[in-house]
Amino acid sequence: MKEPVKKQILELKAKKNAVILAHYYAPDEVQEIADYVGDSFYLAKIAKQSTADIIVFCGVYFMGESAKILNPEKKVLMPDITADCPMAHMVSPGKIEELRSKYDDIAVVCYINSTASLKAKSDVCVTSSNAISIVKALPNKNIFFIPDKNLGNFVKECVPEKNIILNDGFCPIHAAITAKDVEDEKQSHPNALVLTHPECEKEILELSDYIGSTAEIIKYASKSSCDEFIICTEDGVNFKLINDNPSKRFYFTKNRPCCKDMKLNTLESLLDVLQTEKNEITVSDDLREAALIPLDKMLKLAR
Ligand code: 13P
Ligand code: SF4
What we know:
Helix content: 40-55%
Number of strands: 12
Bound molecules: 1,3-dihydroxyacetonephosphate, iron/sulfur cluster
Distance between the termini: 43 Å
């Protein structure tokens, strides 16, 4: 039934010299048709390098917005412009100013899951795959980590030599995974390794065998000699996990974490946006210039 839709997407993509980028949390059929699928860091790098005329970003708003900031000459479209990450708004600009006035040497480290206006007030961006190495590389002793308290706390534990001040933002999808859910899965699958995204709460991280970004979780499972895994992140990663590892088994916690915003990227909305070129992301020049500084710094430091 979806075949005519897929065919039209491929035809329009070629005709308009468009490239389709999808996050691992996008629906399976969108990951299947995308040119590039990855974690936030990989997709930001691809967006910056792209030579296509149109970038269609199947993710959430901060991802499309970052792609536009990194590659302003391109038309960046989103299948559904309302797909947003609630955590991206979870810090008040006033709090940033307060901490800047309290510490002379403070660096504001901004998880890429944030709005452009928050990035514009920050010194450097990070993703879950490079946050530890970037924080370590900064000369500053005092760090204000925004907006995610869980990733921030994970970095704090891995980089004890820094004074990392946490903000109280969080991802509602990852925060809904409870220790009891993980314990239950461990009981049902005693030989499985627990692989967890650092957006999960501290008590989940403590029950885990490995902590990493979506791409790192997939890589770890593929390389591991173990053949059973409990996956503590959004269920979209299952598509790549089972495709790359058909003989291995992957279990999710009972509520099967699902980011409804990521799932707004349907094949139908992808086709619609290729046909109409609606849902274009725009960023004002001033905002773009200010938000580009921390994004570029991330790309340089993560090299
Ligand atoms: P990754 O960079 O690990 O793909 O994470 C993005 C995200 O939104 C996690 O919730
Ligand atoms: Fe945001 Fe969480 Fe969805 Fe990732 S899974 S996009 S952090 S709400």
